[in-house]
Amino acid sequence: MSSLRRPIAVAAAVVTAAALGTTAFVLPATAVGSAPAAGPAAEKAAPIPILGGTLTWGVLERYRTYVLGMAKGEITVADGAVKNADNTFTFGSATGQYDKDGGHIITAAFKGSVTFKSTLHGFEVTVSNLRFDTGTGVLTGDVKKNGVASAGVPLAAVGFTGPVMDKLTTKLTKEFADQLGSADYAGIAGDPLSSKLELPKPSPSPSSSPSSSPSTSASASTSASPSTSASASASTSASSSASSSPSPSADGPQQILGGKLTWGLKESFRSYVLKGKGTVTPADGAVKNGDTFDFTAGKGTLDTKTRKLDASFAGNLRFQFADHHIDMTFANPRITAEGETGVLILDVKTPTLDKKAVPFATLSLPKADYKTANGVLALNGVRAALTQEGSAAFLNGSASMYPKGERFDDINLAVTVDKDATLPGGTGGTTGGSATTGGSGTTGGTGGTAGGGGSVGGSAGGNLASTGAEVPAGALLAASGAVIAAGAGAVFVARRRRTLRG
């Protein structure tokens, strides 16, 4: 963490214009990392006090989903903390200091608490008094779990890597993972963290003149550049990966001659099934590709002039978890897109639903220009959000495991309109056979495989390191009304405590 002490990582982290007669203190860009002025050593200035401010963090979306879903619990805030519309939390009344001469280090503490409670799963965890130190790059807090209080628990490592404290990366610590009840949370990315701090208004310089404007301009430029860069980076998500020399556009729709779609449905759902020794089986044209799957044999039409795409792919994924009575198949994905929006359409089969062409998720494709390069159109990082119809596919009784708007895995796809074009990357494997792999030494399926495809069992892949506990209770009883009968509940309770909470 010592590398996080570099001045450029924190000097301009004092970012937000303050309210109520205060203002954000911003160092001139020329002062960041500059050599000391010539002459006698100046006396070290006293740290600048923080007059107020906020910290916004959601801890971990997966954990919140678990608490409100499968654990049938509640999340409450107190002591000045506020729950935001996106289910994150804002802690206020910041105090602390900015030590300019001591390495541009900011230490700040915030008031407020958030409590995660589930009577069903027998836990109550309260996190309060959050504070960070940009020198160590650690966010700490006080944690009270089931009546046992622990002060100064390191919660997460924070990436103080730029002059703007907005949506900073966080990585949960082992200590906090233990408090949350699952060692699988250790080292994974937590929710982004943002902070706005208020410092005293700088005293005007005795030699104040128009000549000071370049310094102000430099500071503003430094503060703005990371946001601009982040925005530019974000805007490339889901855009075409075509090169600077696209192939000529046709006057009308072109036939798609081949293609593949790479997708994993939802990482937390895969992890939940695999960690419980269930299986995810690709078949009929779907093949494993790392932790996700390729759907192959793309066909359809592409109109680069009107920016329209209609592409369908072969293959299905079957999720089976006998102990929790899950048997769900998602097949034959089709993408219909025009401009910046689209729809993912799937055939869905569950114990309570067997329906073709379900509009499963809405797609977001900002900046996609639909141009091809060397006969290939590639769209990567296409964001998918569950539709009402998609939510109904996970229905159990009157409740769904996932609500409308729930974020599912991003989609990557590539299609060719030239018979000599080559798709990027490999297919990740071959179809057929009955090979079964297990990430944690477990093999075999629960109820057989679909279409003779390879079966993937166990907790495969380091990227699936999650408890699966965020899957709501409906997932455990998705088979039929009979599953809800006496006995199924007992199986769930016993296995939940043994395998999911860790």
Molecular structure report:
- A hairpin with a 2-residue loop joins strand 9 (138-145) and strand 10.
- Strands 1, 2, 3, 4, 5, 6, 7, 8, 9, 10, 11 and 12 form a 12-stranded antiparallel β-sheet that branches. An 8-stranded antiparallel beta barrel has the order 14-17-18-20-21-22-23-26. It has a two-stranded antiparallel sheet with strand order 24-25.
- It has helices at 7-10, 61-68, 174-180, 213-235, 267-275, 388-392, 488-500; strands spanning 48-50, 52-57, 74-78, 82-83, 89-99, 105-111, 113-118, 123-133, 138-145, 148-158, 170-172, 194-198, 254-256, 258-263, 279-283, 286-289, 292-303, 308-314, 316-321, 326-338, 341-350, 353-364, 376-386, 395-396, 399-400, 407-416, 436-438, 455-457.
- It contains 7 helices and 28 strands.
- With 502 residues, the chain is mainly β.
- Residues 1-40, 207-247 and 426-502 have low confidence and may be disordered.
- It is globular and about 75 Å long.
- 14% of the residues lie in helices and 37% in strands.
Distance between the ends: 28 Å
Question: Could you give the count of β-strands?
Answer: 28
Contiguous helical run count: 7
Strand coverage percent: 35-45%
Oligomer classification: single chain
Q: Characterize the main sheet.
A: 12 strands, antiparallel
Helix content: 10-25%
